[in-house]
Design brief:
Elements lengths: L1 H26 L3 H4 L5 H16 L5 H31 L3 H12 L4 H16 L3 H9 L11 H48 L11 H26 L4 H12 L8 H11 L3 E2 L3 E2 L2 E2 L4 E2 L9 H31 L1
Antiparallel strand pairs: 1-4, 2-3
Helix pairs in contact: 1-5, 1-8, 1-12, 3-4, 3-8, 4-5, 4-8, 5-8, 6-7, 6-8, 6-12, 7-8, 8-9, 8-11, 8-12, 9-10, 9-11, 9-12, 10-11
């Protein structure tokens, strides 16, 4: 089994992953396509909504956990199982199968989409158009945006760049590299479920707990890998000391994973990130990450954050390309 994985499956996955990275970087999510058909993540969301309508139960904590677990089991097993069957069928189609799998996998990466959405915040900020800047930042963050000033908006853009690069690019890249289309599909199913039901509120506290814990698990390594890549590619000082600082600062975040890429970005840009924020009218008591950093973020900080993730993309591309070439040569 292990011989088969390393001689056939992993080399095939590397090639698919390399193709997916390039397609996503060049084309992202073309409106001409997704105005006519639903994006795969939208389809995942609709399926989960249907399951929720049939299985949601919050009568008691143990019952809610049971039904939430059943929902996640059906949700992930059915769609991942379908992707395994599809991969198996396309595996035997040669070049055509590779192209189709690369295209399908690219829809679950989000480099160009993230860059486009974050870049859209820069333009109104540079034009001092706070109203349009709030509209653009509201598309990519979950916090209340009406009372944000220009510094708050720029900080929010930097934060979402760091966090979403981890769960929008690094994590799906890693799962695609190791497990092919089924891997990236499985990851996005967990990620989608967490964004829909993984809340610590009265409705989903127990029903969505398994989704939230699974999301913590699948992002544990990618979040830390993201921070390491950010630091290694963009820091000239002592990398080991910087990683120790990131570890300390990441603990201040309410998420066990999101703090890592945000801490790395905060240190690289000398910014104070996170801190108290409004969600649904409630002010959080979140701590500042890199508290001694500058709170007055600017459009230039956003541009620098985009440069950091661009270098990181090239790192993924080179790693995947080298692995692909190595496997093809052996």
């Amino acid at each position: 089994m292990f011989d088969l994985y390393f001689t056939e499956i992993l080399p095939f996955n590397c090639l698919i992953c390399l193709l997916a990275l390039v397609i996503d970087r060049l084309w992202g999510e073309p409106d001409i396509i997704y105005k006519r058909i639903s994006h795969p993540v939208v389809i995942f969301g609709k399926i989960l909504n249907y399951l929720n309508s049939k299985l949601y139960n919050n009568a008691a904590p143990k019952i809610a956990l049971l039904y939430g677990g059943l929902t996640m089991k059906i949700f992930t097993a059915s769609i991942t199982g379908f992707s395994i069957l599809l991969s198996y069928l396309l595996f035997d189609l040669g070049v055509i199968g590779i192209l189709i799998l690369g295209l399908l996998s690219s829809t679950l990466l989000a480099h160009k989409s993230l860059v486009d959405h974050v870049s859209a915040v820069i333009i109104p900020l540079e034009q001092n158009d706070l109203s349009d800047a709030k509209i653009e930042i509201s598309k990519i963050v979950g916090r209340d945006t009406q009372n944000l000033n220009e510094y708050d908006i720029a900080r929010a853009a930097v934060e979402t760049t760091a966090e979403n690069y981890s769960d929008g690019i690094i994590a799906p890249w890693l799962f695609s590299l190791l497990f092919g289309l089924p891997g990236i599909v499985f990851y996005k199913l967990i990620n989608t479920a967490d964004s829909m039901i993984g809340y610590r509120n009265e409705k989903y506290l127990y029903y969505g707990r398994i989704a939230a814990r699974l999301d913590d698990a699948v992002n544990f390594i990618p979040a830390r890998l993201t921070a390491i890549i950010f630091i290694i590619l963009n820091l000239n000082s002592n990398i080991w000391l910087s990683l120790k600082q990131i570890k300390q600062e990441a603990k201040k975040h309410s998420s066990i994973n999101a703090g890592w890429p945000e801490a790395a970005m905060a240190i690289l840009l000398n910014l104070a990130l996170a801190g108290p924020r409004l969600y649904q009218g409630q002010l959080t008591d979140d701590l500042w990450i890199n508290e001694k950093g500058n709170q007055a973020a600017t459009p230039q900080h956003i541009k620098n954050a985009l440069k950091i993730i661009s270098r990181s993309w090239w790192c993924l591309f080179v790693i995947t390309g080298l692995l692909t070439g190595l496997f093809q040569a052996t």
